[in-house]
Every structure is written in C-alpha cells, then in structure tokens.
Amino acid sequence: MANVLIVGRRGRCYRAALKMGHNVFLWSDGPLHETRKKKFAGCIETPFQSCEKQLPKPELDTIRAFNINFVIAATESSVDIAAMIREEFKLSGTPLKISNILHNKNEMKHEALKHGIPITKFHLITDKDTPEALIEKLGLPLVVKPIAESGARGVMVLKSIEQVREHAKLGLLAESFVEGTEVSVETFIHNGRAIFHNITDYLHQWKKSILPATLDQDLEQNIIKINDQVIKGFGVKNGMTHAEFYLTKDGPVFGEMAVRPPGGYYMDLIEYAYGFNPWQTYVELETATTPAPLPTKANKYACVLMFHPGAGIVDEITGIETIKALKEIEQFTFKIVAGSEVAEHDSTSSEIGHVLMSARSRKILLEKLKTIEDNLVIKMKCSL
Fold this sequence. Notes:
- The chain contains 13 helices and 19 strands.
- The chain is an alpha+beta fold and about 375 residues long.
- The chain has an 8-stranded antiparallel β-sheet with strand order 13-12-9-10-11-14-18-16, with helices on both faces. It has a 4-stranded parallel β-sheet with strand order 3-2-1-4, with helices on both faces.
C-alpha cells in the first residue's frame, strides 16, 4: 500500500487505485461533490489552468502534507502538472523534460527527427511566413493545429490559398497533408520495455474506431517497431503511451505520442477486447508494481461510435430503440432530447452520446455500426 496522488478526475483510474488498497489523494480540476471527497485520503480542487507555469505554494504545502509516494496523471491536461510534482518531490515516473516535449507538437517532431523516426513535413508558423511560402514548403491541402492541444481541438485542413491566408496564424503548427488511413497504438511500458501493444483502427477520425486493427502482419510489426523506437527515443520508462500513425503508400508515418491513457473510450474497448482491466495495469506500472503477464491477442473486437449532429436546436430524434435492441452493446449513452441546444463540435469531448460494442468478429461490428448510423436520425430545428 502506498500514498498515491492522482491528478485528474477519471473515475476508473482512482477506483483501480482504491481497489488495490492504496491511500488515494485526488487533485481535481475544479470542485468535487462532497460524497466523492469521502472516497479519498485528501483532495485538491484547484483548476489546472492556474498551475501551468508553476505549482502554487499552497498546493505544494498540501501535497507535502500528503506525504505521497507516487503521482499519476489520469487525463491529458494533468500530464505536465503530475510531472512538475514528481520533479518537486523527487518521485519516480515520467520526468518533466519528457512530458514537456511530448506536450508540444513542434518540439516532439524535432525530437523524432533526431531519432530517425519517419514524420510528416512540418513548420511552426512565424510572422515572416506568407501563405504562398507555406504552400510552397508544405503543399495543399495544408493541416494547421495548435501545438499543445489534444482530442483534435483546433485542427483544420486548409484546401485553398484563401483558407491558408485566413487560418494559418502565428504560433500554429503547419503540416503537409498525409494521404492514407490513421491508426493509434496503445502501449504499456515496464522498466523501458513494451509489455503490451494494441493497434486501433480509426474508421472515421474523431468519431468512430475499432480495435484491434486488422492489418497485414508485416505492416503491424513495422508500426510497432516504429512505436517502440519512439518510446525508447523519448525515454519513456514506465506507464502508458498513446501514439498516432498515418499509413501511407510509403509506409507508416509517426504523427504524435501522448504519455498517458487514451481518451475516446479506448480503455473500455481494450478491456472488452482483451479481457483485463487496463486501468489497474496503468496504476500498477505507475506505482512500481510488476503487473501480471498481459494477453498478446484479443479475444474479441470492440468499437466506439460517438454522436454529434452539429450545432443547433434539436427538433426530433428517432432510432433510439433500434440501437438499444442490439445485443452487442456494452455501453450506450445519449445526452440530448428534443429541444436540447447542441454546441459546436470542437473536439472528441464535444459528443452528445456514444455507443460501445463488442463482438467475436470485426464484420459483425461493422454491420452493427451501419445499422446504428442508418437508423439514428437527429433532426435539427435550427443552427446556432
């Protein structure tokens, strides 16, 4: 049993730590309900945004009183804060210098180049760059994105010089558009060695995914080889990574890597497909515990479909009962009704509902996904 500080309110993470018998302290990005606080040995409720530059003294004093042995990042926005705490209290885990590089897409790509990792052409936009120069350097379409966002926030694909002129702003990262499908690799690492890999197939970016991906064996091994090269090159020793790759005609190309559990319900999908609790494994790896051997092959396939009808006011919804009748469903959440106001879809977290399914074959899941998409109709009264 150890004193464990979990940074980021992700229920399955802290529940796994509690079930393992740890004294769990939680740093939440804002207020916690009193009933939830009772679960923990101590809490901090300071917004992460106020701690981006440095950790405030009151929070440091509180953490010092917790006498923690380990700190675990549970969410994307908590990775750097967790690393800052490790550095301050000289704790094990991913150090700040690594999390800083992985949190900055421009620095991450420069670091990847040092290790001979195949990446897309890129350029950090400065005030000296013209639309014409960017297009000459990187071509059209041109992808622009913030350097420190996740969940597809702020990503734009620009298809004309007019769009480049309007959207290619100072400080954004510009990349050449990559022709090809996209996959991600979820990896558990123990003492610098990868002990589990899963490849997820992005059926529709930011909306629909299935795992494990069905790829040619040589291609799969090539992706994993590059993935492990990235992990070694960046110096990740323990925990979990979520990396994205483009599958081009010239081979896999590294996109980016996060040193944390993935979002998009992938942890749930891993559990349905492989039959183990990935949150428990993650906590074990972050608390210097050797996990039991993990499966090398999935027993089932699992998929996610996230819903968003576009911004506006909902007029009518049909097809819900058809979805609920599918026996492959593991989870089904739907948050809107007629009259609901739906905001813009700016990231994967903007969903208004989702369905998670599992089955013995990929074909069955693809059929059920089509059934859902054919039957669920969300009519909008007006746009915002």
